[in-house]
Design goal:
With about 400 residues, the protein is of the alpha/beta class. The chain has 13 helices and 16 strands. It has a seven-stranded parallel β-sheet, sandwiched between helices. It has a five-stranded parallel β-sheet with strand order 2-1-3-4-5. Strands 14-15-13-16 form a four-stranded antiparallel β-sheet, with helices on one face. Bound molecules: 1,4-dihydronicotinamide adenine dinucleotide and 2-oxo-3-(phosphonooxy)propanoic acid. 1,4-dihydronicotinamide adenine dinucleotide (NAI) binds next to helix 5 and helix 7. InterPro entries: ACT-like_dom_sf (IPR045865), ACT_dom (IPR002912), AHAS_small-like_ACT (IPR054480), D-2-hydroxyacid_DH (IPR050857), D-isomer_2_OHA_DH_cat_dom (IPR006139), D-isomer_DH_CS (IPR029753), D-isomer_DH_NAD-bd (IPR006140), NAD(P)-bd_dom_sf (IPR036291).
């Protein structure tokens, strides 16, 4: 590896920000001297994405850009990847780790936005507003109290009781709803919320079921025909998590038979990408389904904060080496290195690498002022502070160590 490829002054490091990431990210990067920034309003895919990452040191995406192993292997200079959102399922995190690329996200900044949208949808669905609205747009006048209910006293079932699910539970209780939840982890019930004994029990008691789980192999189609059949007749389903969590054809069948009285769906198994904006779904034919184009987290407040938060994480890693809150990487929180040079060494976690690094530096007469190490089962991350005059020879030595994935010097 040629170490100089990864060791550049900030102004020469290129950041590529896709999917209309908020300008707050650009401002934060520029303030810290990262002035070489290319932005794009949409997601990229295929050859366009490969072109965009070919010489990028930082890549910023939201939920749409699919960063596969192949894309990562086409990005030899990529130093860190920022997901300016919560979900990281669109990234091949393991390959990124193996290539020495930490991935950061914004785990909290848009959660309130999703919670507010879902709360509004629960009220709209219980009143049958989507259908009444659609009929009125066509000149009809559906003034009726049939199948129209207050939220007060109804039961909300929350599947995935994490940052979003818990906030929805608290807000729903303010409306007088009873809250039951289900999670794979033990979670502290907030307010009067109650943990259901099983997903089946939750589905059987809830008037509205709302999903807030991540996309994982376990959550794939977790709401299919069998689960929909368990839901109460006349109940509603809300999904603002990931499109793969619900079997859309099964949902369409449950709506067709009027077993479910409505649904609000923000995320879809296939969402239009980049230059392919045509949306099709088996759900578009139902007046009683609220469809939104994956905008659960799309508020000004959330996007400003996400821009700042993820940019700060990229800057911190690039300028200081800290990997705190990386989702795929050994975490190290580092102090400032004023007056010293800091070297980063990412390696495969096999026995003897650290000893080898230290032996080489010692043999070259380079004094180590401070050293920090964190590992996971596959990758080790060593950060070494040396006196400034020793930095170039130290980098050259470290890059020779077998099982090195990346090494670079911070400016
Ligand atoms: N529609 C939109 O614009 C947005 C969608 N999201 C989606 O919402 C998801 C949830 O977000 P947060 O609440 O912030 O995440 P979180 O990580 O705080 O909570 C997720 C919860 O789901 C639980 N869980 C995981 N697998 C489960 C399973 N098989 N069964 C039951 N529970 C399970 C976890 O233990 C955790 O408590 C994100 O992963 C993302 O995919 C997030 C933000 C915006
Ligand atoms: O934060 C998330 O996981 C989301 O789904 C929001 O995605 P977006 O930034 O709106 O593409």
């Amino acid at each position: 590896m040629n170490p100089s490829r990864l060791s550049r002054p900030r102004s020469q490091l290129k950041a590529v920000l896709l999917e209309g990431i908020h300008p707050s990210a650009v401002e934060a990067l520029q303030r810290e001297g990262y002035t070489h920034i290319v932005t794009h309003p949409k997601a990229l895919a295929g050859a366009d994405l490969l072109d965009a990452v070919a010489d990028a040191h930082f890549l910023g995406i939201r939920s749409r850009t699919q960063v596969t192993g192949d894309v990562l292997r086409h990005a030899p200079r990529l130093t860190a990847l920022g997901c300016f959102c919560i979900g990281t399922n669109q990234v091949d995190l393991k390959t990124a780790m193996r290539l020495g690329i930490p991935v950061f996200n914004a785990p909290f900044s848009n959660t309130r936005s999703v919670a507010e949208l879902v709360l509004a949808e629960i009220i709209m669905l219980l009143r049958g507003i989507p259908e009444k609205n659609a009929i009125l747009h066509r000149g009809g006048w559906m003034k009726s109290a049939a199948d129209s209910y207050e939220a007060r006293g109804k039961t909300l079932g929350i599947v995935g009781y994490g940052h979003i699910g818990t906030q929805i539970g608290v807000l729903a209780e303010q409306l007088g709803m009873n809250v039951v939840f289900r999670d794979v982890e033990a979670r502290l019930p907030l307010g009067n919320a109650r943990e259901a004994a099983s997903l089946d029990e939750l589905l059987e008691v809830a008037d509205v079921v709302t999903l807030h789980v991540p996309e994982t192999p376990e959550t794939m189609n977790m709401i299919g025909a069998a689960q929909l059949a368990r839901m109460k007749r006349g109940s509603h389903l809300v999904n603002a998590s990931r499109g793969t969590v619900v079997d859309i054809d099964a949902l369409a069948a449950a709506l067709e038979s009027r077993h479910l009285h409505g649904a609000a769906i923000d995320v879809f198994p296939v969402e239009p990408q980049g230059n392919d904006p045509v949306f099709t779904s088996a759900l578009t034919r139902f007046d009683n389904v609220l469809l939104t184009p994956h905008i659960g987290g799309s508020t000004s407040e959330a996007q400003v904060n996400i821009g700042k938060e993820v940019a700060a994480k990229l800057i911190r890693y690039s300028s200081n080496g800290s990997t705190t809150s990386a989702v795929n990487f050994p975490e190290v929180a580092l102090p400032q290195h004023t007056g010293r040079s800091r070297l980063l060494h990412i390696h495969r976690n096999v026995p003897g690498v650290l000893a080898h690094v230290n032996e080489r530096l010692s043999a070259a007469g380079i004094n180590i002022a401070a050293q920090y190490l964190s590992t996971n089962e596959e990758v080790g991350y060593v950060v070494i502070d040396v006196d400034q005059e020793g930095s170039d020879p130290a980098l050259a030595e470290m890059c020779q160590v077998p099982d090195t994935i990346r090494c670079r010097i911070l400016y």
